[in-house]
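Morning run. Coffee first, then this:
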Amino acid sequence: MDVAVIGAGAIGGTLAALLERAGHRVEVTARGERLAAIAADGIRLTGRWGEHRARVAAGERLTAAPDLALLCVKAQDELGALRANEPALPGVPLVVVQNGLDGADGARSAHTGPAIGAIAFFSADCPVPGEARVLVRGPLYLGSGTAPPTAEAAEAARVLSTALPSRAVANFAGCQWTKLVVNQINAMPAITGLSVQETLAEPRLRRIILASMREAIRTGRRAGIAFGSLEGMTPLALGVLGSAPAPVGSTLLRLMGRRLGREPVLGSTLQSVERGLATEIDHLNGAIVARARALGADAPVNAAMTELVHEVERDHRFRTAHEVARRIRLT
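And here it is:
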């Protein structure tokens, strides 16, 4: 099939390379050094899904209408990317691969075809322009809302499963909330400059991450969310994480860090900070704060972590574990 990937960063570049390796014709969009590298030498896939050099068409905008399109930009860049590429997308099924809660819903305001939500449960980074390195393998989940998956979601999952494990799921909204809880590990690396594994190994930082996850779980429950299951992160596991004694929750997070392996996982928020780009923290920890306030509640740990990430964005100075613990005092 002809597949377009809008935003060939870590996630988009990985998907583009896997799809090209599976035999699809792929066109990607990118900018700057990344675009120049891809146009010259393709996308080099490395890491946990093997090595491959994917030869793909590349430009700042799509040049032809695909059979299927994947939108893989940050949440804050979604509408701009869609408007720039919409001439090539009328009626095309669009898979929005994005963190946060509102990706597919936001895309529907600027896209004339079906918009399908997607959760990437793998971790990747871009060590150099033109390379997509997979650090942790995982599937794609597709769907929308709380209903069973649509025919469009099922068909998109079928196509994508030729390249990597992909499945259309019911209660996609609940799965988004589960991923949002998991993504609470994303802010602390951006605040400290440490890997996810290092932040989960440091007792003071781990306690704060656990507190932020518990706020996210409480907020979802207040909103009436039925959490979904993602690769072992089940509603039962979230229940334990959210209400078990703190030492039990801390142990679960320490084990999570160990399961990530030895290759440092930086998280997308730290990757944005290191590149001098705006992060999507307002759509991660900030989304918890906004949802809690809409429900007449507070999420002070998530609010503090969101502000700390913004401070690092502004002053380009990582905080030590001691500074973070002084700033975010847990009761």
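The CA atoms of residues 187 and 269 lie 6 Å apart. Good start to the day.
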